[in-house]
Every structure is written in C-alpha cells, then in structure tokens.
Here is the input.
Amino acid sequence: MRSWLLLFLFLPAVLKAQSVAPAAAQTPPFKQYKIISPLPMTLYDGHTFNKNDLPKNKPVLVFLFSVECDHCAHMTQEILKNIGKFGKSTILMVTPFKLERMKAWYDQYNIRNYPNIIMAAEPTRQIAYYYDLKNFPGIYIYDKKHRLAADYEGTVKLDTLLKHL
Here is the structure.
C-alpha cells in the first residue's frame, strides 16, 4: 500500500519532468545556439569551408537553397539584381545537394562575378537538420558578430531581408 501511495505522490513530478523535456528537444539547433551552422561545406573548387572562414565583423545572410526549387531560383535572381544593397554583408548560399549540382547553379548564375557571395554544397543534408528546414528557401540572417538576428522559410521579400542587414 505504501508503494502505491509513494507512486501517486511522485507521479505528478514525473509527468511534469517528461512534459518539459520534449519541448526543449524540439527547439532546432540554430535557435538553441544562435550561431551559423558549424558544419563543413564544400566550395566550387572542392575546398572545405566552415563558419570560421567567413569574413569577421560583417553581417551574414545564409541562403539555404535547393537546385530544384523555382522559388530559390527566383530569390537568387532578385538578390543578384539587387546585389548592391547587400554590399556590406556576406551571402552564404548553401545547398544540401551534391557538389556537381551546386556547380551547375553556380555557373548558371555566374556567382564568380559576385565577391560577397560564397556558394557551397553540404550533401550530407545535416545543414537542413541544423536549421530544421521544412520548405526551401531558408534564409537565416546573422549580425556582424554572427549571432542570429532573423530567420525565414519560403519566399521572402527583399525589403524584409534588407532591414536586418
């Protein structure tokens, strides 16, 4: 009888502890740590790149895109048409597709002509998990100290992005 009584006394505390744990686990890593993904990525030339290679004291716009996404293509075109408005920031374009697919996108949009754009592939798709990406494109804006300032998923107007940079 005593064991049942103890069980009923501690049951609310156990249930409360279990209800709190999943909520913390559901917070995506980018919101928990508020830093740019630390995952290694591969550049056009095959070199490995990570967040420590980004220019210091400059805002960073992380643009997570799919090479098969029309919204991503449109957003890329909008950014390139308005590249002057992004002059004081770095744009890190990352795709979870293989390097060959990223290279085709890089060549199609002549990314080499834009010194403030870094394009990379992260084909393990861990970056999509880090950002908890459900819909392309994913836009993650970091301030000049590289701390998360804003995040968007799906199509976003350029003016909305620029107000954070």
About this structure: Confidence is low (pLDDT under 50) at residues 4-11. Helices lie at 2-25, 29-33, 70-81, 99-108, 126-130, 158-162. Residues 2-25 form the longest helix (24 residues). The beta strands are 41-43, 48-49, 60-64, 90-95, 117-121, 138-142, 148-153.
